[in-house]
Amino acid sequence: MSEKRNKIYRIGAVLADKGIDNKVLAELMGVKPETVSRWCNNEIQPKPENLYKIAELTKTNLQELHISTLNWPSGPSAAELAQSEYDKKQKAERLKKSKNKKV
Protein backbone atom coordinates (compact mmCIF):
# COMPACT_ATOMS: atom_id res chain seq x y z
CA MET A 1 0.00 0.00 0.00
CA SER A 2 2.12 2.85 -1.34
CA GLU A 3 0.67 6.28 -0.65
CA LYS A 4 2.07 9.09 -2.77
CA ARG A 5 2.97 12.13 -0.69
CA ASN A 6 3.66 15.52 -2.15
CA LYS A 7 6.91 16.80 -0.79
CA ILE A 8 6.40 20.52 -0.45
CA TYR A 9 8.71 21.43 2.39
CA ARG A 10 12.43 20.96 2.88
CA ILE A 11 12.44 21.53 6.63
CA GLY A 12 14.60 18.45 7.25
CA ALA A 13 17.21 19.63 4.73
CA VAL A 14 17.33 23.11 6.29
CA LEU A 15 17.78 21.64 9.77
CA ALA A 16 20.52 19.32 8.51
CA ASP A 17 22.30 22.17 6.70
CA LYS A 18 22.27 24.25 9.87
CA GLY A 19 23.18 21.36 12.19
CA ILE A 20 19.95 21.67 14.21
CA ASP A 21 18.50 18.51 15.76
CA ASN A 22 14.77 17.81 15.52
CA LYS A 23 14.60 17.58 19.31
CA VAL A 24 16.09 21.06 19.74
CA LEU A 25 13.62 22.58 17.27
CA ALA A 26 10.76 20.69 18.92
CA GLU A 27 11.68 22.11 22.32
CA LEU A 28 11.89 25.66 20.95
CA MET A 29 8.57 25.21 19.13
CA GLY A 30 6.78 23.62 22.07
CA VAL A 31 5.85 20.51 20.07
CA LYS A 32 6.77 16.84 20.29
CA PRO A 33 9.96 15.70 18.51
CA GLU A 34 7.76 13.28 16.54
CA THR A 35 5.87 16.26 15.13
CA VAL A 36 9.07 17.87 13.87
CA SER A 37 10.14 14.51 12.43
CA ARG A 38 6.84 14.22 10.57
CA TRP A 39 7.25 17.79 9.25
CA CYS A 40 10.76 16.89 8.07
CA ASN A 41 9.48 13.77 6.30
CA ASN A 42 6.52 15.64 4.76
CA GLU A 43 4.12 13.25 6.49
CA ILE A 44 2.22 16.23 7.89
CA GLN A 45 2.44 19.93 7.10
CA PRO A 46 3.05 22.61 9.71
CA LYS A 47 0.45 25.32 10.18
CA PRO A 48 1.49 28.62 8.56
CA GLU A 49 2.29 30.18 11.93
CA ASN A 50 4.55 27.22 12.77
CA LEU A 51 6.26 27.44 9.40
CA TYR A 52 6.95 31.12 10.06
CA LYS A 53 8.29 30.26 13.52
CA ILE A 54 10.61 27.62 12.02
CA ALA A 55 11.93 30.23 9.59
CA GLU A 56 12.39 32.71 12.41
CA LEU A 57 14.13 30.27 14.76
CA THR A 58 16.49 29.02 12.04
CA LYS A 59 16.97 32.45 10.41
CA THR A 60 15.82 30.99 7.11
CA ASN A 61 13.73 32.66 4.42
CA LEU A 62 10.31 31.07 4.10
CA GLN A 63 11.06 30.39 0.42
CA GLU A 64 14.00 28.21 1.44
CA LEU A 65 11.65 25.98 3.44
CA HIS A 66 9.63 25.18 0.30
CA ILE A 67 10.60 22.83 -2.48
CA SER A 68 10.82 24.75 -5.74
CA THR A 69 7.92 24.29 -8.15
CA LEU A 70 9.51 26.11 -11.07
CA ASN A 71 9.59 23.00 -13.24
CA TRP A 72 5.90 22.82 -14.10
CA PRO A 73 5.21 21.62 -17.65
CA SER A 74 4.54 24.36 -20.20
CA GLY A 75 1.02 25.26 -21.29
CA PRO A 76 -2.09 26.32 -19.42
CA SER A 77 -2.72 25.01 -15.92
CA ALA A 78 -5.63 22.75 -15.03
CA ALA A 79 -7.27 25.70 -13.27
CA GLU A 80 -6.88 27.91 -16.35
CA LEU A 81 -8.38 25.21 -18.59
CA ALA A 82 -11.28 24.74 -16.19
CA GLN A 83 -11.86 28.51 -16.09
CA SER A 84 -11.92 28.63 -19.89
CA GLU A 85 -14.53 25.85 -20.01
CA TYR A 86 -16.57 27.59 -17.33
CA ASP A 87 -16.46 30.88 -19.26
CA LYS A 88 -17.60 29.12 -22.47
CA LYS A 89 -20.56 27.57 -20.63
CA GLN A 90 -21.52 30.90 -19.07
CA LYS A 91 -21.36 32.63 -22.45
CA ALA A 92 -23.50 29.91 -24.05
CA GLU A 93 -26.10 30.24 -21.27
CA ARG A 94 -26.24 34.04 -21.69
CA LEU A 95 -26.70 33.67 -25.45
CA LYS A 96 -29.45 31.11 -24.93
CA LYS A 97 -31.27 33.40 -22.45
CA SER A 98 -31.00 36.41 -24.75
CA LYS A 99 -32.40 34.39 -27.68
CA ASN A 100 -35.31 33.16 -25.52
CA LYS A 101 -36.16 36.75 -24.53
CA LYS A 102 -36.30 37.85 -28.18
CA VAL A 103 -38.72 35.06 -29.14
The structure class reads mainly alpha
CATH architecture annotation of the domain at 11-68: Orthogonal Bundle
Give a short account of the largest sheet. none
In CATH, the homologous superfamily of the domain at 11-68 goes by the name lambda repressor-like DNA-binding domains
Task: Walk me through the structure.
This protein has five helices and no strands. It has a domain at 11-68: lambda repressor-like DNA-binding domains (434 Repressor (Amino-terminal Domain), Orthogonal Bundle). It is mostly helical. It is elongated, with a radius of gyration of 23 Å. The mean pLDDT is 89.
List keywords for this structure.
103 residues, mainly alpha, 434 Repressor (Amino-terminal Domain), 0% strand
Task: Indicate the topology.
Elements: H1 11-18, H2 22-29, H3 33-40, H4 48-58, H5 78-102
Helix pairs in contact: 2-3
Short description:
58% of the residues lie in helices and 0% in strands. With 103 residues, it is mostly helical.
